[in-house]
Design a protein that fits this description.
The chain is α/β, with parallel strands linked by helices. It folds into two domains: 2-175 and 343-391, Rossmann fold (3-Layer(aba) Sandwich); 182-338, 3-Layer(aba) Sandwich (Rossmann fold), CATH 3.40.50.720. The chain is built from 17 helices and 15 strands. The strands form two sheets. The protein has an eight-stranded mixed sheet with strand order 9-8-7-10-11-14-13-12, with helices on both faces. Strands 3-2-1-4-5-6-15 form a seven-stranded parallel sheet, sandwiched between helices. Helix 7 links the parallel strand 5 (141-144) and strand 6 (166-168). Helix 1 (2-22) crosses helix 3 (54-65), helix 1 (2-22) crosses helix 4 and helix 3 packs parallel to helix 15 (345-365). The chain binds adenine.
Length: 409
């Protein structure tokens, strides 16, 4: 009896979280309405690998209400919001994930989704696509949510390994300009604050990488009074960071006196053994990139097998002869989704409108596409921009006939 009421309570919390997110996702709600009433995804099976959050639940419910069969597995083992899972299961969405899954289970859940033979695959990170490419059945197409996933897909495409067309949602301006920058910028800082409770004002923060996520993180950190330094390998991005007002330095020059390091590069071993040895006592390390490869966690684990957790999502490692303490957040996994709740519904509304409309587009036009990577179609992008403007109550000017003419002369 107690277990049943616990399940019910979880479901109610999940339902309430879904409703809470949905009310702040007008772009997705408005743009899906027509497809839902026409049940335009009837008879389509979707294989989906996304972070299981309240925002994702709004996307999945819209897909299901448009008639699709939805099979879901998590994109990260630590970012699962259990009440949302409970809500989705009760609403007929099949979820391949159990509460105490280990890393092996995490990957076999992806195989479980593929066993359902999805017509369309939606992924965040490229791991589900990678597995699908080894299976030789007829997938109609796929979509990809994140930078790291798109980079992997580009490499597979070059090698001729793509077996179906992909719409790289992350390459849509309506995705990265808002979600990656403002969404992940804010939620990364939120993750650091939730896990540590520290004051950001006056802290020396190093942001490694000045892509869209790095730009957003740096902007939020400086807004809270931190002293921010950017490290980059791209001369152009370094120059941009400088013109944006940030200090730009090689990592080696700032490694020994920063309080917090945030990796946003998508690269491996950005903070490796050499850097860890030079970091000052009490420094905090965290990662905002998709994979847990930017900080050398294996090295940290090897030098302090007795590392301990002073509080949730914080690991303390003692390094070197002086046993200086280094704090790793969220086990080096995406801090914004593990330490906090991920990006806010306002930006996920725009990203997931891209996802929904790209899935519908693939269901209708996959036969006309090649096994290549496509951007979100321009028409879809424009619809999203106009709907977003309208939903925020924004009005803009238009060119006069004279101005229109002037452009053409
Ligand atoms: N990626 C970043 N934030 C997210 C969120 N709230 N839901 C799903 N995926 C995300």
């Amino acid at each position: 009896m107690a277990i049943r009421s616990e399940v019910k309570e979880k479901y109610e919390v999940g339902r309430s979280e879904y409703m809470w997110a949905k009310k702040s996702m007008p772009v997705l709600n408005r743009l899906t309405h027509r497809f839902v009433s026409k049940r335009c995804l009837e008879n389509f099976n979707l294989g989906i690998c996304l972070h299981i959050t309240k925002e994702t639940s709004v996307l999945l419910m819209a897909l299901k209400d448009a008639g699709a069969e939805v099979n879901l597995c998590p994109a990260n083992p630590l970012s699962i919001q259990e009440p949302i899972k409970s809500f989705l299961i009760k609403n007929g969405i099949k979820i391949f994930s159990k509460k105490d899954d280990n890393l092996l289970d995490f990957y076999s859940n992806m195989e479980g989704v593929l066993d359902t033979r999805p017509h369309i695959i939606t992924d965040d990170g490229g791991e589900l696509h990678k597995r699908a490419l080894y299976r030789k059945y007829n997938t109609m197409g796929g979509t990809e949510e994140t930078t790291s996933g798109v980079n992997r897909l580009k490499a597979w495409c070059k090698e001729g390994l793509l077996m179906y067309p992909i719409i790289a949602v992350n390459r849509s301006r309506t995705k990265y300009l808002f979600d990656n920058k403002y969404g992940t910028g804010q939620s990364t800082i939120e993750g650091i604050l939730k896990t540590t409770g520290i004051l950001l004002s006056s802290k020396r923060i190093v942001v490694c990488g000045y892509g869209w996520v790095g730009r957003g993180v740096a902007r939020c950190a400086i807004g809270m009074g931190a002293k921010v330094t950017i490290t980059e390998v791209s001369p152009l991005r370094a120059l941009e960071a400088f013109f944006d007002g940030f200090e730009v330095k090689p990592l080696d020059e700032v490694i020994s006196n920063a309080d917090i390091f945030i990796t946003c590069t998508g690269q491996v071993n950005v903070i490796g053994q050499d850097q860890i040895e030079k970091i000052k006592d009490g420094a905090i390390l965290c990662n905002a990139g998709h994979f847990d490869v930017e900080i050398d966690i294996n090295y940290l684990n090897s030098i302090d097998q007795n590392h301990f957790s002073p509080r949730m999502n914080v690991e303390c490692y003692r390094v070197g002869e002086n046993k200086k303490k280094i704090y790793l957040l969220a086990k080096g996994r995406v801090i914004n989704l593990v330490g906090a709740e991920g990006n806010s519904p306002e930006v996920m509304s725009i990203s997931f409108a891209n996802q929904f409309l790209s899935i519908v587009y693939l269901s209708q036009f996959h036969e006309k596409l090649n096994n290549k990577i496509y951007k979100t179609p321009k028409k879809i992008e424009r619809k999203i921009i106009l709907t977003a403007l309208d939903s925020f109550g924004l009005k803009i000017d238009s060119l006069t006939p004279q101005q229109n003419h002037y452009f053409k002369t």
